[in-house]
Design a protein that fits this description.
Elements lengths: L2 H22 L4 H11 L5 H7 L3 H4 L2 H8 L2 H13 L1 H11 L3 H12 L8 E2 H11 L4 H16 L9 E2 L12 H7 L15 H14 L9 E6 L16 H7 L1 E3 L13 E3 L8 E4 L1 H9 L3 H14 L18 H13 L13 H14 L9 H8 L5
Antiparallel strand pairs: 1-2, 3-4, 3-6, 5-6
Helix pairs in contact: 1-9, 3-9, 5-15, 6-8, 6-15, 7-12, 8-12, 8-15, 9-10, 12-14, 14-15, 16-18
Length: 387
């Protein structure tokens, strides 16, 4: 399908969606009017473009960390950590997430409230409901949740600008998340995540707690491997205490790490054995609930650490030239699929199934089975060597 034909199809479906929404909102005239005005401009094709070029998929992990864990964000975060120390202490006591983590989320999501987004959330969600073939039902659900929030008086028309993906406020909540986890912490009768830092941070803390953040536990620590460590014996899902990982051949790079030996930890290798490695706790999984990209969760954790003065990773991230681009990732998935491995799709996005397939191919090729796709593995699979 040509781009023009694709756009025409989106416009036609968008028009049908407008009619469906109008019919479903007949008992909510105020909401119906807001929605009709927001959708009068038609679909937002910039949103379609952005949805296909998300930085978590286009940047390397190292690039992502460098851009988000910036000196500017660290310095501003330190100022705000001190300025809101009483509030953050209350939130830590009530919800369990450390103050620096909440400040880091605030900084990454909206540059501490300075960049909450200017897109029409109604229009963005309606566009994605039509244009995103994989997640259309999700976006329709978020659009319905947004209408319910407006019906219940929890959002006003002035509050309906946000990110291109439909997220709202200083901590960028999707409508369904705001409905389920929003907190009116300043007790003014409205959970205002756009204008109230207290409500925005409390809502984020409440969501992290609901997502399983272990009370008062850190997200993780940087580690290094020793010659005794075996990648073949490693499983990305295996959890064990710090002492067991040390026996297995890991070293903690920061002796002052806040993690004790009573926390189940798993080892993640975002860019493989030759880049920073981390032992992460259940708190890291809570960050993944906020945004499922490992690079995002790492950025939050590392920014929070930097804000309170903890050192960054001892190792350096890979050069961008050493990381496979999207077309090479698709080629690698095709090559692994042709050899009978389930990659979870051929889309250039490496989820758990693609990582598992990579590890199996690495083991067969005698490479470190760290689950990271390299040029060496790609060449091995595409030059006719069957493994």
């Amino acid at each position: 399908m040509t781009e023009a034909a694709e756009r025409a199809a989106v416009v036609a479906e968008f028009t049908a969606l407008k009619h469906d929404l109008a019919a479903s909102l007949t008992g909510m005239p105020v909401v119906a009017d807001i929605v009709a005005r927001a959708l009068s401009a038609g679909p937002n094709f910039d949103v379609v473009t952005l949805s296909r070029r998300q930085p978590e998929h286009e940047w390397t992990v190292g690039q992502y960390i460098a851009r988000l864990v910036s000196a500017e964000r660290i310095d501003r975060g330190r100022v705000l950590l001190a300025e809101h120390s009483d509030l953050l202490g209350q939130l830590a006591a009530r919800f369990g997430a450390p103050p620096e983590t909440l400040v880091a989320i605030w900084g990454i999501e909206s540059r501490y409230g300075e960049a909450c987004g200017t897109a029409s959330v109604v229009r963005s969600l309606a566009t994605l409901a039509i244009a995103d073939d994989r997640r259309g039902a999700f976006w329709r659900g978020e659009l319905a949740a947004l209408c319910t929030l407006m019906r219940d008086g929890r959002l006003e028309s002035a509050d309906l600008s946000g990110s291109w993906a439909g997220a709202l406020g200083q901590t960028q909540f999707m409508p369904s998340t705001l409905a389920a986890h929003g907190v009116d912490f300043d007790r003014d009768g409205l959970c205002d995540v756009l204008r109230s830092p207290a409500d925005a941070l409390a809502s984020a803390a409440n969501y992290l707690k609901a997502s399983g953040w272990p009370a008062q536990k850190p997200w993780g620590i940087n580690v290094a491997i020793t010659p005794d460590f075996s990648w073949d014996a490693w499983s990305p899902d295996e959890q064990k205490p710090l002492s067991a990982w040390l026996i297995a051949g890991l070293d903690v790079t920061d002796p002052a790490s806040p993690l004790g030996d009573d926390t189940p930890l798993r080892l993640i290798a975002p860019e493989g054995a030759e880049a920073p490695l981390f032992l992460v706790s259940g708190a890291f999984n809570a960050l993944l609930a906020y945004n499922p990209a490992v690079s995002y969760a790492l950025a939050v954790g590392l920014l929070g650490d930097a804000i309170v003065g903890r050192p960054g990773p001892a190792q350096t991230w890979r050069q961008a030239s050493a990381v496979l681009g999207r077309s090479d990732r698709v080629t690698l998935q095709k090559a692994m699929s042709a050899r009978g491995h389930d990659t979870g799709g051929i889309d250039g996005i490496f989820g758990p199934k693609s990582r598992s397939a990579i590890r199996a191919c690495q083991q067969s090729a005698g490479l470190p089975a760290d689950g990271f796709p390299t040029q060496a593995l790609l060449q091995h699979l595409t030059q006719g060597s069957r493994i």
